[in-house]
Amino acid sequence: MARTGEILADILERWGVDHLYGMPGDSINEFVEELRKARNELRFYQVRHEEVGALAAGAYAKLTGKIGVCLSIAGPGAIHLLNGLYDAKADGAPVLVIAGQVHSTQIGTDAFQEINLERMFDDAAVFNKRVQSHEQLPDLLNQAIRTAYAEKGPAVLIVPDDLFAEKAEWDQPLTSDILAETTGFPDQKDMKLAAEMIDRAKKPVILAGKGALGAKEELALFAEKIGAPVAVSLPGKGAISDTHPLSLGHIGQIGTKQSYWAMQETDLLIMIGTSFPYREFLPEKADAIQIDLETKFIGKRYPVACGLNGDAKKVLESLIPSVSYKKDRKFLEDSKKRIESWRKEIEKDKELETDKLMPPQVMAEVQKVLADDAILSVDVGNVTVWAARYLDLDRQSMLLSSWLATMGCGLPGAISAKVAEPEKQVWALCGDGGFTMVMQDFVTAVRYKLPFVTVIFNNQKLGMIHYEQQQMGHIEYGTELGSIDFAAFAEACGGIGVRIESRDEMRMALKQALHADRPVILDVQIQEEPPLPGNISYDQAIHYRFSERESPFL
């Protein structure tokens, strides 16, 4: 006989879980006791806010493909998880939540901190069950983990804390702790149709997303053979090296001029592992092929003529020998000229010397010391644009809140990245707005001795929102943040903090930061710079100009 909580800890280990994030409390403490006993096999990272725990669990899943785990008490703790869970659901990351609940005899009595957790989690979760008895608990845990993997989202198990303490024998399980892999492959007639469409096309363009990250070599070979330049979605950054001659860079609001024009001119769009949502940045009328592991995404956002359901790597491996080498490469050569011109503009931005630091210069200095296998956790805001535009990634990994775009994801992502890959170089790239949403958990990084570098682009405002207001033709309002000395904050937390105002100071601080044995904050004072898109529309230009006029009411 064993406590049910002990059985649960054992099941988590069988699934390969070696750590989880959360906070203890009176409706989860019986399970926390089992975590204490199993602390050598199942590490518990106590965060300072449950939102950070959920975001860290989601980031771990995005980075590794393994399930991320977090826990909370009932009531307020569980409520704090929601933002991180919606982020995981939106980005297709498997996450397990073990949410404590009031004593089983008190449910329905409006007990202290009791809320209807089943109803609250229902929209955020792909699996959401409250355990009725301790006998159910082990099998429901297996089912929750399996569903999180299968449906790529958060699975929530709500457990009255007293059930963890019940004694049980789990000698006849109804479920198993194994996951059967699904490897779909397109029908041969669809593969034949795709090859015919590619051979007919005069101006093919590839749009690669997150699903192409596991097919980098195949993508480059395929693009070269069919004479197609490659644009990438933001979560697909790195699917083709940013310095590859066929790389168009990003598409969309943060996109490049050459990707905009390629989409305007193409006669065949080939989407690989992406469900890019912004229809206005895709071709008005062009044939389309879409490769995706999830059938539900094929044709969801663009009218495709051919859908290939399968893993991008395997589909491309089969498709490459089926297509002809494109002899007419005028469109490709024209695209490459535009690419070269854009890169020259980017290099000018990075090499420009100014009295005050500009974001491109900061990214240029980070690039110089970036390890080949570094992990970058990039927050939401202007910093997303600077990272996408000015960092050249090849083998590096980038963590994002790509669909929900929640500010505050940078620090939790770096925490989980250092937990997952302690030997790798880890960065958190944050704006001052995003960082201040979760800054309390810098203490967590210090406590658990997680040495990574946080670069804060400090302009004392919500820069992206400021620009959005300008773009709409509005007078800026409510975006000023005021000044915080983040370097002093880092030191107060027990980390290392450096305030940076010049490029020379940036270079020196980066060299020292990468050898530190503690978390580091580089508080970089930057000049305001609007994140202008690669192609500016007439309306955007007019609105931006109007917004710069002084308001008569200020």
Description of the structure:
The chain has 554 residues and is α/β, with parallel strands linked by helices. The N and C termini lie far apart (72 Å). The strands form four sheets. The protein has a six-stranded parallel β-sheet, sandwiched between helices. A six-stranded parallel β-sheet has the order 11-10-9-12-13-14, with helices on both faces. It contains 21 helices and 20 strands. The longest helix has 22 residues, at 330-351. Helix 1 packs parallel to helix 6 (137-151) and helix 9 (216-226) packs parallel to helix 11 (312-319).
Features:
alpha/beta; about 40% helix; 6-stranded parallel β-sheet; disordered C terminus; about 15% strand
- How far apart lie the N and C ends? 72 Å
Shape: globular
Give the fraction of residues assigned to helices. Answer: 25-40%
User: How would you write the strand order of the largest sheet?
Assistant: 3-2-4-5-7-6
Brief synopsis:
This protein has 21 helices and 20 strands. The radius of gyration is 25 Å and the shape is globular.
